[in-house]
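Incident review: delayed structure delivery

Summary: a single-chain prediction request sat in the queue longer than the usual turnaround. Root cause was a stuck worker, restarted by the on-call engineer. No data loss occurred. The affected request and its eventual output are reproduced below so the record is complete for anyone auditing the incident later.

Affected input:
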Amino acid sequence: MTQKPPAGLGICTLPAASLTLLLATLVGCGDANTFQAPPPPEVIVTRPTAQRVTSYIEQTGTAQASEFVEVRSRVSGYLKEIKFKDGDLVEEGQLLLVIDEEPFSVKLQYARAKESEAAAGLTRAKESKAREIARANLDLAKAELEYARSSHNRSVALVDRKATSRAEFDQTDAALQKAEAQVLAAQSERDQAETEFESNILAAEASLALAKSEVRTAEIDLGYCRITAPCAGRIDRRAVDVGNFVAMDASLVLCTIVRVDPIYAYAAINEGDLIRFRNRYPAGERPDTVPVTMTVDESDAAPLDGVVDYVAPSVHKGTGTIQIRGVFKNSGEVTPGMFVRIKIPAEEVDGAILVPERAIGYDQAGAYVYVVNGEQKIERRSVTPGETVDGKRVVRGKLAVQDQIVADGLLKVRPDMQVTVKSLEDRVESKRAAVNRLKKTQQSEAVSTSEAAL
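Output delivered after worker restart:
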């Protein structure tokens, strides 16, 4: 059933086309739409500061022990005692290991006996009477020769007077010749005795020297049975246990000792830093007067102060770097093998420009800062970051202390963009004032609460 409209109410019906025309007329009576540009973004700006700063050569390096000694045995034998615990701190000369000494003690006794025998032989050679006997025999032969000669002369006189026989004369002549031959033989024996006396002494002295050297060798070998620490430092774990046979072999390392106080730090610097280093420290200046500091990454320990005691004589042609070494007092903060950071004062810079770290941006072209020029537009200035000083970064580039640099909101702007500026100092002051007001409000509320409780 169709419901009729209430009586007395009229309904005006319009065609659809007339209704559309009416709506278009009503809409066209308003103002036309126009684009309203957004306001320029607000950026926080500050001004660079200028001050005298020290430029540093900074490089990552590695810590190394000032001494690293591999302890080996100089004799072969069975290990009898171990006098240290793995990881101990040892002093120079401290007894570490003992090899069985008995065989070497016996060798020493034998060598000393040979020395005594050689010493007795030398004494016997020096006290030999062979020379005196030979000299006496020569004197006797000469006396007999004189007697034979006088007898021969008498025989000659008797023969001339026909007072003796020819046979007796021949006997005296033969006796003379015999006496002369005996004198020659005695002289030869004396010379031989003289020579043998000297040579026997020399041979005995050589034998004694050889015996003494054998004694010294035996003493040294016996001393090598007691192995001591060649330097002070921390000792590594032992490589052999008691009862094992230790051979005199260069490949067998019994233990190692590393000296960590002082400790070395090695680093490689490039050619540019080398030039800065030499400009600050002339080549004629002793390298051990160059100060250097060392820090360990992620360590709360204070930096260690030291000196540069070595600079390599040439630049490595493959890397273009040169090796330097610093030496530092170390009470255990740094362990050999750790990565460290070294800093060497390079030059004093007057009027260096410093900016907040957050004001520096980085892209593929390098580091940059945004500067707000006199037209309140953004300019990009390329810079070269340097050292960090009191939370700010030293930069090199076309910057002056009068420039306004964007200190916050780098991602909101781009070059040639119009901006409005707000001073970083004003922002900090506003935050400080707001914090002070909040504190005062909290104090007032606390006082009111206390009074209400009373």
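Verification: The first helix runs from residue 16 to 27.
Action items: add queue-age alerting; document worker restart procedure.
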